[in-house]
Design goal:
The chain contains 10 helices and 12 strands.
Length: about 290
């Protein structure tokens, strides 16, 4: 029951119907017996400045941020943590007495998901498909863990030259058109291939990035940040070729757990949050 003393949390973005954050966060809230609520709030880009003022005025303890607001919101906050500054995007906001601090927990989510499959990014050669906000989180996570080289494959390298400038202190980051011979050479030396594009996401499940997975060395890890469907066409092809695979559910889980810690100061129940996610995804896929 929501009471006067109930602390409010939420997630903002547009469209917002796809988000699993309320399911995951409410499961953790209930498991910890906390007096919090967590709701999805549809906010269009043109209304963001009013939404932030409103959430601050209503004393929301915090909120998560999803597309297309992650970059826009950075200029409306009082401060940003190091990861959010480097990535240029925020997915979690904490309100401390009217002072709003932006965080990006996707980095932690990504690195911890690698830990779960015993992949250590130190000194690895990574290939990243896409150069949007999710890619920036992945690239920064790899840089922080001292990856040896990061090749970014995109359709239009010119469009993303500024991203390379942002990461220029890490000389190991390069960008390529993903259909060139130079990029194919990068694939042949990769320890991990990561898809950060939406190609293959529900409902467009027949799509996949136009790369030849078979170029990868034996044993290379193939990672798709998409978690719906659980096994994209991209991952199914990699598995068919004998490569180990991982989807984006554990990244979603761990970024959500870190957001919960920031909101509440309490360690969430990982098993409860994971089950809530798994059940929600099974329901979405009609299982």
């Amino acid at each position: 029951m929501i009471k006067v003393a109930t602390k409010n949390l939420g997630i903002i973005g547009y469209p917002i119907g796809h988000t699993l954050s309320p399911v995951m966060q409410m499961a953790a809230i209930n498991a910890a017996n906390l007096d919090y609520s967590y709701i999805a709030i549809p906010i269009q880009k043109g209304k963001l400045i009013f939404a932030v003022d409103g959430l601050r005025a209503l004393n929301f303890r915090g909120w998560n941020v999803t597309i297309p607001l992650k970059t826009m919101i950075t200029s409306l906050l009082d401060s940003l943590d190091t990861d959010a500054k480097m990535i240029g995007a925020v997915n979690t906001v904490v309100n401390d007495g009217g002072i709003l601090t932006g965080y990006n927990t996707d980095v932690i989510g990504f690195v911890k998901s690698l830990n779960e499959v015993d992949f250590m990014p130190n000194d690895c050669n990574a290939v990243v498909l896409g150069a949007g906000g999710a890619a920036r989180s992945v690239i920064w996570g790899l840089c922080k863990r001292n990856a040896n080289h990061i090749a970014v494959g995109v359709r239009n390298p010119e469009k993303y030259k500024s991203m390379i400038e942002d990461f220029k202190i890490f000389e190991s980051v390069e960008i390529f058109h993903w259909e060139t011979e130079e990029f194919k050479t990068q694939m042949k030396h990769a320890d991990i291939l990561i898809n950060t594009t939406p190609l293959g996401m529900t409902p467009d499940i027949d799509e996949m990035p136009p790369v030849d997975i078979s170029l990868l060395p034996e044993g290379a890890l193939v990672y798709d940040l998409i978690y719906s469907p659980a096994k994209t066409k991209f991952l199914a092809k990699a598995e068919e070729l004998g490569y180990p695979i991982i989807n984006g559910m554990k990244m979603l889980l761990h970024q959500g757990m870190e957001a919960f810690r920031l909101f509440t100061g309490i360690e969430p129940d990982e098993k409860v949050m994971l089950k809530a996610l798994e059940d929600a995804l099974k329901y979405e896929e009609g299982e």
